[in-house]
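Q: Could you predict the 3D structure of Rhamnogalacturonan endolyase?
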Amino acid sequence: MLIETENWPYDFPLSEDFVLADQRGTVSDRLLVSDSYLSKTLVTPNSTFIGLAAPGDVGSWQIENKGYQFWTQTDSEGYFLINNIIPENYCLYAWVPGFIGDYKYKDYIYINPGMIHFMLYTLVFNPPRSGPTLWEIGIPDRTAAEFFIPNPQPKFEDQFYIAHYKEKFRQYGLWDCYTEIYTNGDLVYTIGSSNYQTDWFFAHVNRYTYKYVHKHLLPFRLFTLYALTDSSNYTLQLALTSANEAELQIRINDQYADVPHFSTGSIGRDNMIARHGIHGLYRMYTVDIPSNFLASGTNVIFLKQSRGSSHWSGVMYDYIRLEGPPSND
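A: Sure. Here are the predicted structure tokens for Rhamnogalacturonan endolyase:
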């Protein structure tokens, strides 16, 4: 396999549609991350996913299926090399494990036939950030693998994935385990004492009652603000790793408010819950929370999945972070 990989692209195809190696191009350079709340200097990310795909909006490569894509990962110093690129007009995209958001290079990259090397200047990714981190849940890695995944019902258990891959999520019926675990009420996650690895159910699913009459799940977080800053915005960074026939609504300190503070609208056809997966299309939302919505002391954020068409309607979270008002540093 390694020998064949090294020999690609082959020189023996005679079809005019096959682009030979000497007509393909290469793109290389380095990508760094700028987050002043994390480091005063540029951060060197490791294993960043970076690639060329058809021109489009930020993150559009996820749903592009007509053109070629060429991807690689950076080394420990942030350097990357993409080889054997078919001549075409591209955008360069990236996402960095450990950081939220998507990167897109500002200019188009056109690979001409026979172009040996296309070098860029050092690229700098500025991930979404409005202020200092007050609390966070999960790991920004575009999967729900770090959250609590229950043991499947014995009659559905597939030992193959557990024994060989140590993957508990590839099991049928895990969506029903939520109702079995939270029999008397929904998930409550308390900032400062709860642990997302043991206390955050991996999928925000509907609970069922008799004959699968679905109710809408209301998980929420309790957190305390002692030094509330007046006339300032707080920010909730919300990254989803999957959504299926869902609508996620956010309410602040009033779960019965007629109008939610924020709604994603109808999102998702990923079907990862039914397919026993932990990630689909990545979605990122930045939600402003004016200080007049918050109290000095205990606050509650309610997350409601407001659509209940089936027990496979729901979302999976990648990462949630509450940021304070911007600092003056």
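Q: Anything worth pointing out?
A: The chain has a mean pLDDT of 89.
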